[in-house]
TrEMBL record:
Its EC number is 4.1.1.23. Residues 18-268 form the Orotidine 5'-phosphate decarboxylase domain. It catalyses: orotidine 5'-phosphate + H(+) = UMP + CO2. Gene3D superfamilies: Aldolase class I. The gene is pyrF. InterPro entries: Aldolase_TIM, OMPdecase_AS, OMPdecase_type-2, OMPdeCOase_dom, RibuloseP-bd_barrel. PANTHER family: OROTIDINE 5'-PHOSPHATE DECARBOXYLASE. The keyword Lyase applies. Keywords: Decarboxylase, Lyase, Pyrimidine biosynthesis. Pathway: Pyrimidine metabolism; UMP biosynthesis via de novo pathway; UMP from orotate: step 2/2. Belongs to the OMP decarboxylase family. Type 2 subfamily. It comes from the Bacteria. This is Orotidine 5'-phosphate decarboxylase. GO terms for biological process: 'de novo' pyrimidine nucleobase biosynthetic process; 'de novo' UMP biosynthetic process.
Length: 290
C-alpha cells in the first residue's frame, strides 16, 4: 500500500515546519506586471507557480480554496486544475478546501471529482452536519492510504458559536460529538505516527479550549485556521500542536500579500517565502517556550 498520506504529512511537518500556505488567490492579489498581456487563468497560474517555487521547501503543504477559482468561471477552474497539477508534479501535499457536505451518491461523485482526475488532491475538507453518511462515501479512498479528509469541528469564525458550541447531553458540546464520531471512524485508517486520515479543522482563536481539545483528540491531525488576520498568534497555535506536530497552520493573505507590506511588487514570491519562514520560526519558538 505504501506510505499513508497522513504519515507523509506528519513527516513534512517534521522536515519543513507547520505552515500550510493557502493559495486562495484573488485576482486583486496579482501584481500588474503579471496580469499584463495574459489571460486571467494564465496570470493566476503564474502567480501561484512562482509562490510555490519560492516556498516549496519551507511549508508543509498547500491549501487551495476552490471558491476563489469557481467565482471566475471556466478561467478560474482552468487555473485551479493547472495549480493542482503543478503541485502534484512537485510532490507537494495538497488540501483542497471544498467543504462538501452532501450524502450518498452525491458525496460519492464529490469524492471521485476531488480524489481523482483533473481536480485530484491529497486531502479535502468536509462539513459533517448531515451526519456520518456525509463522511462514509470518502472512506474507500482513505482506506487505500493515499487520501485523507479534514472535517469541520471547531472553527475560528464568530458563527461557530451558533451551532458548534451548543451544549448537549453529558456536559459535551456539539463539536465534541462531531469530533468523537470522526475519531471513532478514523481508527480504521490510522498511520504509523498515531494520527488518522480523518483530521479535524480546529481554529486557533478559542485558546481557552486549546489544551483540552489537543489532549482529548490526541490521534486527530488538525488543520488550524485563524492565524494572523483572524487574530491567532504563534503562542495560540502552539496549544493545538503536539511536540510541534499533529497539525498544520494555514495562512493565505498574510503570505500571498506579504509583498504589499514591503512595497516590492516585483519580488512578491521572495516576500512570500520570507513571510512563510518568519511564521514557521515564530511557531517553532512558541512551541519551545511552552
Amino acid at each position: 500500500m505504501g506510505k499513508l498520506i497522513i504519515d507523509k504529512l506528519y513527516e513534512r511537518v517534521e522536515e519543513r515546519g507547520v505552515v500550510c500556505l493557502g493559495l486562495d488567490t484573488d485576482a486583486s492579489y496579482i501584481p500588474q506586471h503579471i496580469l499584463s498581456g495574459k489571460s486571467l487563468d494564465e496570470a493566476i497560474f503564474q502567480f501561484n507557480k512562482e509562490i510555490i517555487d519560492a516556498t516549496l521547501d519551507v511549508v508543509a503543504c498547500y491549501k487551495v480554496q476552490i471558491a476563489y477559482y469557481e467565482a471566475l468561471g471556466l478561467a478560474g477552474l482552468i487555473a485551479y486544475k493547472n495549480t493542482l497539477q503543478y503541485l502534484r508534479e512537485k510532490d507537494a501535499i495538497i488540501i483542497a478546501d471544498i467543504k462538501r457536505g452532501d450524502i450518498a451518491a452525491t458525496a460519492s461523485q464529490y469524492a471521485k471529482a476531488h480524489f481523482t482526475g483533473d481536480f485530484e488532491a491529497d486531502f479535502i475538507t468536509l462539513s459533517p452536519y448531515m451526519g456520518m453518511d456525509s463522511i462514509e462515501p470518502y472512506m474507500p479512498y482513505m482506506e487505500s492510504g493515499k487520501k485523507g479528509v479534514f472535517v469541520l469541528v471547531r472553527t475560528s469564525n464568530k458563527g461557530a458559536e451558533d451551532f458548534e458550541n451548543l451544549d448537549i447531553e453529558g456536559g459535551k458540546k456539539l463539536y465534541n460529538e462531531v469530533a468523537d464520531k470522526i475519531t471513532e471512524a478514523g481508527q480504521t485508517v490510522k498511520g504509523r505516527y498515531g494520527y488518522t486520515a480523518i483530521g479535524g479543522v480546529i481554529g486557533c482563536t478559542h485558546v481557552e479550549e486549546g489544551k483540552e481539545i489537543r489532549n482529548r483528540y490526541s490521534n486527530m491531525f488538525f488543520l488550524i485556521p485563524g492565524y494572523g488576520a483572524q487574530g491567532g498568534t504563534a503562542k495560540d497555535v502552539a496549544l493545538y500542536l503536539k511536540n510541534g506536530n499533529g497539525g498544520v497552520v494555514n495562512s493565505s493573505r498574510g503570505i500571498l500579500l506579504a509583498y504589499k507590506k514591503e512595497n516590492k511588487e516585483l519580488e512578491y514570491a521572495e516576500c512570500a517565502r520570507n513571510e512563510a519562514i518568519n511564521m514557521r520560526d515564530a511557531i517553532r519558538a512558541a512551541v519551545k517556550a511552552m
